[in-house]
Amino acid sequence: MGLLDAGITQHNVLITSVDNVLNWARLSSLWPMGFGLACCAIEMMATNASNYDLERFGIFPRSSPRQSDLMIVAGTVTMKMAERVIRLYEQMPEPRYVLSMGSCSNCGGPYWEHGYHVLKGVDRVIPVDVFVPGCPPRPESLIGGLMKVQELIRMEQIGLSRADALKKLAEKSVDPQFVIERERKAAGA
């Protein structure tokens, strides 16, 4: 028996904070954009299928970064692809979150030692909120990572002062040319 089933009388009052209402709305309508680069993308597609039914969690995949609040990076990120990852990340509206899926996007995977062209983790170019380990991770692991993102959203504070909000935005900003040059120098290319 829920609130709407019981009927609303004239003298009922519902008390909560604005943070709780807004966070509940955001975590109940999470719109991820998948950035599938390798075999992890197959597992991401399997997770989006009817067997796992992500829509029961309020998760509805989008294909445009301007409509997404979560980027799922799934697979090997090369130096050339890093620029596109940064560009898509910058096109997403705030608040935005990143989930790194699989060992290739987490740390370079099996290519990290001898692959001069492979980024040694997507967290070197954009801030990552949740890492999902595995090669490739099972759909259950991805769902667990998505639920971790929802927990992060649940605990967020919306009513920050302007100075705190600007500081938070500055921490998440990315200079693509600096990052690409730094990675190329580290790889010796």
Would you mind describing this structure in some detail?
The protein has one domain: Rossmann fold, CATH 3.40.50. The termini are far apart. It has 189 residues and is of the alpha/beta class. It is built from 8 helices and 4 strands, in the order ααβαβαβαβααα. Helix 4 packs antiparallel against helix 8. The longest helix has 16 residues, at 139-154. A 4-stranded parallel β-sheet has the order 1-2-3-4. Pfam families: Oxidored_q6. This is NADH-quinone oxidoreductase subunit B.
The arrangement of helices and strands along the chain is HHEHEHEHEHHH
Helix content: 40-55%
CATH topology: Rossmann fold
As residue ranges, the low-confidence spans are none
Distance between the termini: 64 Å
Overall pLDDT: 82
Global morphology: globular
- CATH level 1 name: Alpha Beta
Task: Using the CA coordinates, give the radius of gyration.
Answer: 19 Å
CATH architecture: 3-Layer(aba) Sandwich
